[in-house]
From TrEMBL:
It comes from the Bacteria. InterPro entries: UPF0473. It holds the Pfam family DUF1292. Transmembrane segments: none annotated. This is UPF0473 protein JOD17_002990. PANTHER family: UPF0473 PROTEIN CBO2561/CLC_2432, UPF0473 PROTEIN CBO2561_CLC_2432. Belongs to the UPF0473 family.
Length: 108
């Protein structure tokens, strides 16, 4: 299971390298039993901490064979993205320790 503050590496969609993200939180939707992970890019030392933070969300599926393994899936439908975005906004409002503006900026 992905844990808060865990770092994950995702390949660039164009195949030109990879990106490091930090897990902000995970949640499960009871109706669908789908699990989601919300991540943010790791801030480089030369970036300003006051800069706006991008937030990305993915559906994730844990591996049955490997307890540490998982697969990330893009959120495809607008309906699913709206539900995830609503959950992100609710969780951000409830947790004052998360250093973001409270809005999900990008949908991947």
């Amino acid at each position: 299971m992905l844990e808060e503050n865990e770092r994950i590496v995702l390949p660039d969609p164009d195949g030109e390298g990879e990106h490091v993200f930090e897990v902000m939180f995970t949640f499960e939707v009871d109706d669908s039993e789908k699990q989601y992970v919300v991540v943010t890019p790791v801030v480089e030392d030369d970036q300003e901490e006051d800069e706006e933070v991008e937030i990305f969300a993915f559906e994730y599926e844990e591996s049955a064979e490997d307890p540490e393994g998982y697969t990330l899936h893009q959120i495809e439908s607008d309906e699913e993205w709206e539900m995830v975005e609503e959950m992100i906004n609710t969780l951000l409002e409830d947790d004052e320790t998360l250093l973001v503006d409270g809005e999900a900026e990008d949908k991947e």
